[in-house]
Amino acid sequence: MLSRVAENIYWMARYIERVENTARIINVNTNLLLDLPRDTPFGWEPLLFITSREDTFYEGNQTPDEISVIKFMIGDRGNPGSILSSLSYAREDLRTTRDVVPREAWEQVNDLYLYVQNHLEMGISRRGRYEFLKRIILSTQQITGLLAGTMSHTYAYDFVRLGRNLERADMTTRILDVRSANLLLRQGEELTPFDNIQWMSVLKSLSAYQMYRQQVRLRVRGPDVLKFLLQDPLFPRTVCHCLGELEGCLRKLPRNSAPLESVSRLKQQVNAAKISELAYEGLHQFIDQLQIGLGDIHEQITATYFPSAISQQTQASAQTSIATPV
């Protein structure tokens, strides 16, 4: 297949995954703040750090209050990582590959883009935000299902899976890095109810709470959450599982030696990590290394399969990618 088509499909999958992840962390943050005391030092700024958009946000001299951050993350076209911007990029990528991707997927992305564009105020207000974000999450999952169920599993679909799982792994590491920064400082002490609530929010940000409780039949604890989200091979949003998916896709593609080596090296690093030690010291540095590794995988995929990718869109995409360390 043409490298341009492969590139567009890869980025389309990344953008769709990014939309779902952004909608989910906004939704979880909204619910979490309702459960915490008013004087708890926990607000909206962490969402900017999770998505690495703090510099862009503060360029506008904005205050990181709820309304400003929500507007910035949902509908600000000046933010390349906003839900509306990501859908716009995905829509354009699909428009140029409609002969490869099922028409139903294009229609679903287009409908979702128009819905978000026309209902931004609903997402900004607390009253309508849950339904607004719920529709976005369900629509992105429907797109993922449409692609899995109606697209031939050829090389083209492998690039869909590469984009989705690389974006997913990166978001998992970012949520762990930012959300656990304050919590792990107290992990040696008896957990308070609010600590439990915040660790639950880490899991819920990845829709992992129910599956975590099935695998770890104990109360929610920091080290257990870290081990599950980094090393569990079966849950679709853990780093280990996403790397396994990347490895499986690359093994089916030609000229795979360089990107496959990067994936295998990072997977070994994740599996060899001693979580009980990281929970006490060195987690931020470890996650930095994981994000550097994910960035290297992206670069290897680009160099191998998108050699003509020095286009205006790709340069913009690389700049808006969250495959670089915080």
Word description of this protein:
The protein has 326 residues and is mainly alpha-helical. It folds into two domains: 1-151, no CATH class; 153-319, no CATH class. 73% of the residues lie in helices and 0% in strands. The protein contains 17 helices and no strands. It has helices spanning 3-35, 45-50, 54-59, 66-74, 83-95, 103-118, 120-124, 126-150, 155-183, 193-204, 209-215, 222-231, 239-252, 257-272, 275-278, 283-305, 312-320. Helix 14 (257-272) packs antiparallel against helix 16 (283-305). The radius of gyration is 19 Å and the shape is globular. The protein starts with a helix and ends in a 6-residue tail after the last helix.
Number of separate helices: 17
Beta-strand level of the residues, as a percent range? under 5%
Spans where pLDDT lies below 50 across 5 or more residues:
309-326
Mean pLDDT: 87
How would you describe this structure in keywords?
disordered C terminus; 326 residues; 17 helices; mainly alpha; 73% helix; 0% strand
What topology does this entry show?
Blueprint: H1 3-35, H2 45-50, H3 54-59, H4 66-74, H5 83-95, H6 103-118, H7 120-124, H8 126-150, H9 155-183, H10 193-204, H11 209-215, H12 222-231, H13 239-252, H14 257-272, H15 275-278, H16 283-305, H17 312-320
What's this entry about, in short?
The chain is built from 17 helices and no strands. The protein has 326 residues and is mainly alpha-helical.
